[in-house]
Predict the 3D structure of the following.
Amino acid sequence: MFPAGFKMTPPDSSAMDDDVFDFTDSEDADAPFPPTYMVVRFAAATQPRAIAWLVDKIRGPRSHGGAELLVRRQHTEPGDGVILHVSASCRKLLELAEEMELKKRDQAGLMREFIFAHLRDFVGEKGDREDLLTTAERQLIVRHELDNIRALSEDPSIPGYPNFRMYEGQSIVQVMIHRALVMSMYPLHDKENLKRLSSKWYYSKHQPIEDIRLYFGEAVALYFKFLDFYTVKLLFPLTLLGVLQMALSTLETLPFFCVCNVIAVTVFLEVWRRRSNEAAFQWGTIGMTSLDEPRPNFHGTMMVDTVTGRLLPQFPRRTTYIRMYCVTLPIVVVCLFLAFLVMLLSFYAEERLTQMSKDPESGVTYVTVMIPSVVYSILVSVVNLYYRKLATYLTEWENHRTQSQFERHRVIKLVAFEFVNTFMALFYIAFIYQDMDMLRSQLATMLIILQVVNNVQEAVLPLLMRYLSKGAGVGEHEAAAGGAGGADGEVSSAGGLRYRGGSATLSHELYPGVPEVLQGIPELDADDPRQQQALTEGSMDEYEGTYDDYLEVFIQFGYVFLFSAVYPQAALWALFNNVIESRVDAFKLCRLYQRPLARRVKDTGAWQRAFEALGAMSIITNCGLLCVSPPLRGRFPELSQTQWVLRWMVVEHLLMGVRYVLHQAIPDKPEWVRVALAKLNYQSKLALRKERALKRRMSSRRSARPVPVPKAPAH
Amino acid sequence: MFPAGFKMTPPDSSAMDDDVFDFTDSEDADAPFPPTYMVVRFAAATQPRAIAWLVDKIRGPRSHGGAELLVRRQHTEPGDGVILHVSASCRKLLELAEEMELKKRDQAGLMREFIFAHLRDFVGEKGDREDLLTTAERQLIVRHELDNIRALSEDPSIPGYPNFRMYEGQSIVQVMIHRALVMSMYPLHDKENLKRLSSKWYYSKHQPIEDIRLYFGEAVALYFKFLDFYTVKLLFPLTLLGVLQMALSTLETLPFFCVCNVIAVTVFLEVWRRRSNEAAFQWGTIGMTSLDEPRPNFHGTMMVDTVTGRLLPQFPRRTTYIRMYCVTLPIVVVCLFLAFLVMLLSFYAEERLTQMSKDPESGVTYVTVMIPSVVYSILVSVVNLYYRKLATYLTEWENHRTQSQFERHRVIKLVAFEFVNTFMALFYIAFIYQDMDMLRSQLATMLIILQVVNNVQEAVLPLLMRYLSKGAGVGEHEAAAGGAGGADGEVSSAGGLRYRGGSATLSHELYPGVPEVLQGIPELDADDPRQQQALTEGSMDEYEGTYDDYLEVFIQFGYVFLFSAVYPQAALWALFNNVIESRVDAFKLCRLYQRPLARRVKDTGAWQRAFEALGAMSIITNCGLLCVSPPLRGRFPELSQTQWVLRWMVVEHLLMGVRYVLHQAIPDKPEWVRVALAKLNYQSKLALRKERALKRRMSSRRSARPVPVPKAPAH
């Protein structure tokens, strides 16, 4: 049998002080059901046997591969899919928090791994243990436990689906999601906290990063921190500089402005790296490595992990590398090349049509000339969708161990493609056509379209769509569940929606439409507001992570800095947009999407590199643009064309050199973070030493035999 | 009073098992004096009071700021400076090894910090504790202890020298060296081991890296590892490729050859980084950080170290940065600029003279034309000497905490200057004159001169000099002490020169010429061969670290790769040279220099970056050379000059891109090192956790009071 030991007992249960808190909370039908942390929604066609089997696993003891969580079934209409509410007792959550090595701030203000036996260090003498974990953390813990229900050797396939085979150690929930038996799995919003957060968020000048982190997790908080930092520390000063440059409006200041820009970008990215490391330290995520616990979809043979000694799926890193470099890389390169080719084709077609339109007999009108551009735009967005699926599929297949690695490799693939689609056309205009006016107008159009379209798409459209598709009826429902929590939700003074104290109804009578095997699962009260909330939020769109948000900033960043030599005003537009953008994003997250699961990150991952690559590229493009700019060239008629080009080449290389020196000279982490990490490291080392000394002494007690003393020293 | 506590008791003396070895070795006049680990040679004029005071410190107990080492005075002629032999008991050495966190391989083959109480884990049940530490390590330990004798508040100045003031916590030995009271301080060679090492070293195909490390320490071993790796893995294949290219001798293959070169360099440097990290892991130096124990010359106010909690000199890092960027950087830049200017001047003078020489009436002959070059060469070598002093002084003044940081910043300053002096002239010829033949002949000359001169200078000249200056008498002495260890040294079978068993003579009778205060120091036997050895090796030159050796490779690397487009044969010469070079260096270290003190390093420091910078530059220069090469240009007459330049620019940027991608894609550390480090980290973390759990439990025993159980859960 497959031992569930790899996630069984907390690492040092031996050191557990059972006298710290004297409470019992085994599942009791009369006890109130705690808040729902995850909603699991099955497809209507899913066989009741499979559902009942999963519920047994969720509620079952760990010794039998269960998760020891609490489950309630929601009252649903016949024909609808089954909806389960999953929760956990407070004690269980705290135990799991220890197991997941969650970091919490202790009473001394130090961020350290939570240990259940030290509960008092974290909540203080009078503190409430219920307050220690945020709802985001509880949801994360419950989701982690659900994902970690793994197939035993006695479960070759899902009951009722003999074809849906599983290998030992596979995540059952992930298989059921993959097989579309589970339609969705999502946490619920915490109305009270959300209300407090959003009121703070929409109207304050700076982003309330810490509140965002507590509610949405580190990944979302880091995105907003980045957006804020980028807007305030980079765009704002550069906008002022740009305005100054426009006011002076002399040609000679333009190169100076460009140099300022590219150096500012370099410094900004270096300083951001420091900031992000600082945040990661404060959030306790700085120690995340690629050898951490694998993500749920990581597959491999169950083996003893070299680092932790626990039983975990293992997959040779070499195979991942082979897949990456021998399969994925060629496919991606071909895709990029095709995208480039399509772009060239559209340019060629447009050019031909423009020439033909000069001949009135050809029948080519002004409108016809625009066809290639329009077709190209549509094609790009369609192909983009497919490419995104391809990239996700390939990255999944590469089988990276951690979520961060997975995200990084997925982002690299996607960004390269987006880069070709977005910027190659502009490069073509700038350096092949060398038409600066066309470039400028194109830039202005794309920048404004990007920003308007995005904001509309992100906020206005979803609101409108929902209003149109669901009509007033559902809208009312939503308003009741969403806005008026105070009216029917019994808001507690401590915050958060207090759940109904009523006991669960064990449905011994046969409800019509509920299959017999499911009637063993206790049901929620008929008037529990969570049932409506689960339905409403289940119909909302899922927030797919920060990818699209970063991408938007990335493209904007490219528009502003790659071509600042021809369009210095871009920074102003970007600044203006970002002030709105951050609010739109906040609104989107708070109101339009299902609550996303908190995700822990230690940095912006591939985005840091992507932005750095753009920074380096901006040196090349700006020097190139200034070099091909006719007015500037006109000032130096005495230089031959080659001399002129060489001069700019020297400037470019010097700037690259400056960039390299800055990169080397600015340390990645602030001094205090380095010292704090070194301190922790030193203390751990000492502790390990002591532990080994202790162990040795114990073993030497057993076989105490003097070692022969050497007769004569030798050197 | 200044507490000597910062280096007093070993970190966990509480866990020490005193029953492991039952031996006593307090200093006993009748006990044999162990091998000399450090020789301290005073100036003849040094006041005996000062010497006696230092000896008291060296022998004194730690509780009074002493080092608890053993000292013997060498019998010297009247008028000569006093020479002291410093040693330590085996037990003391092992205790200090623990304190210095020296890493040793235990019986399980694992590299870990030596702990005295675990001695048996390291030497095994039957092992000899004398064999555990190599002589290099013993010397390092003794030197470390000597350097760590620090001035107490009761020592305001050196006795007999009221003007030589010291601040509390300053290293006394360093002050005495600085004030020229101590002329030199050096370890002695270990004839037997040296003989074994050198016979292996001179004749084996590969460098015996592990033996070198054990005898000369990590810094020297890493240099030879680098030299070996560079010669075998980079130069050898490229030579083959170069020969192939010469055989084909078609113009079209040259660009291909260049591209191969620059990509090979990039890959080589990345792989070297991996190798060096691997070695650092195996040698136990990978964990060295800039927060490690400060180097002896680091000064600052004595304060509690944030990381270790020990009392150590502290100096604000910010001040170092300010000094670096506000003072040193401008000075260095000015120096570089001046060097550049001097080079231009010499070129200008040469050009003028060449023009004048065409006019027979000017009296300028062929010889006169060469004057500027000669003057320039002499000027460069003279200025170099002064610049080196300046760089050392500035780096010392910047006050870097660790030896590695100090070395890195010193190397950066020196390499920049060497770069300007060595390569700028070639750049000038290549890109301003664009005279490829001149470049080629210049390269060939400089490469061969460099190699011949260096080898002569390093090996032949010192041998000759010594022979000439000292005559046959000293030569015999040396031969006796050096080669014929077996004849008079009582070679033990265990290896190494066994010291004479005779007891030290406490000179109660008054020797003529020996001041009274020094007569309390026991003297070595009159026939102890170490006395002659100390004199002979004291007169040898000091090995000043690996800087000059790396520099030689660096310059060669530059000649070979920066200009491989015009002179592909360079690799062959370099290969040929390095085969000899490694032997010459080996000979130099074994026979010509004082034994250097082992130095621990975790990587090649600034050299890695310097070579990487050359690698990047080689892309630029090779593309540039191919671009200005007339024969290649002749093949593409249809391209305009600007188009031609732009084409090469694109190639250059593509290669830079490839370099960047390779740099990102090749991980710094091999997978197994990463896993091993992660494992150690994980174990330390667990140990710290347990320790904290234990502490908490103990404190909670005292105040066991139940925390109020919350009445109602809230979310």
